[in-house]
Amino acid sequence: MAHQIEAMPKPDKILQLDGISPESVEAHWGLYQAYVNKYNEIMGKLEAADRGAANQIYSEYRGLRSQLTFAIGGVKNHEVYFDNLGPGGGEPSAEFGSLIERDLGSVENMKAELKAAGMAGRGWAWVAFDWTWKRLDVYIGDAQDTFPVWDATPIIALDVYEHSYIRDFSTARPKYIDAFMANLDWAAINARFARYNISEHLG
Prior knowledge:
Oligomer: single chain
Radius of gyration: 18 Å
């Protein structure tokens, strides 16, 4: 039986953002739902794919596996993105804030670095924790399937594909990123940080 997934419940908070309209969010959510549907479709087709005909130039199996990776990125990146947005504001927890200061200088420096990454990236930018080097850093991804950096976990995800801002900001990506920063839901971000028990691995 092919593995199937469901979209996460749509949080009411993402329709209450300052400067990012509900219409834009609804359209963006539809794209996320499409990634969920496409993952399920590809998983179904993989069951019947001919493993014996797989090769690196062209094969049904290669195509399905490659596009499955893209769909997974579309699902997981958007789930972090939508979760870390909301009108609640707040600030990093003491533990997360301390790690931000240690590795990125300050919260303001982290935001500046993430904004620069968002301007430089073609699709995504993340603040992520590297489990090997035990530090936070900022990463760029040009497409849905260019993350993960091996053994690193995204804590904050910034979508900079045009679909995330074109309705509200036209081509003014910097204004969209500023609105994104102003709508960070630190309670949700802190909960994600705590869920991974990162502090226990800093020793």
